[in-house]
Amino acid sequence: MDEKTTNHFRQLLLNRQAELQSVEQIGHEAAATVELDQSAVGRLSRMDAMQAQAVSQEMEQRRTLELQRIKAALACIESGDYGYCLRCDESINPHRLEIDPSATLCIQCAEKS
């Protein structure tokens, strides 16, 4: 992969990282403990709040995982290993990386998983 292409993917990763980090604080607040005081809210409102909390917690876990994948991809760029499948060591199609610049498997190996 040439330097221009690598820099393009580096920028995609950095942009996505910044985007995820900017919503991280909002996610922490939404995943906070739900108030269960029955005098404060009705049962259905509490159930809705608990469901929203569970969704927020799942989104926070996914955001954390994606940030870890981005960090790993940026490390691969720095080491010169970016764009190669972790299983077969073949090049990952740039179109696949365009969709997910943190992809670690080529499409063939990903389909086998």
Fold topology:
Elements: H1 3-30, H2 43-79, H3 94-99, H4 107-112
Helix pairs in contact: 1-2
Structure, explained:
With 113 residues, this protein is mostly helical. 68% of the residues lie in helices and 0% in strands. It has a domain at 3-81. The protein is built from 4 helices and no strands. It starts with a helix and ends with a helix. Keywords: Metal-binding, Zinc, Zinc-finger. It comes from Candidatus Reidiella endopervernicosa. It holds the Pfam family zf-dskA_traR. Residues 80-112 form the Zinc finger DksA/TraR C4-type domain.
Rough outline: elongated
Give average pLDDT, whole number: 87
Instruction: Report low-confidence residues grouped into runs of 5 or more.
Output: none
Gap from first CA to last CA: 25 Å
Q: What sequence of helices (H) and strands (E) makes up the elements?
A: HHHH
Q: Can you count the helices? A: 4
**How many strand segments?**
0
Strand content: under 5%
Biggest pleated sheet: none
Features of the shown structure:
68% helix; mainly alpha; 4 helices; 113 residues
In short:
The chain is mostly helical and 113 residues long.
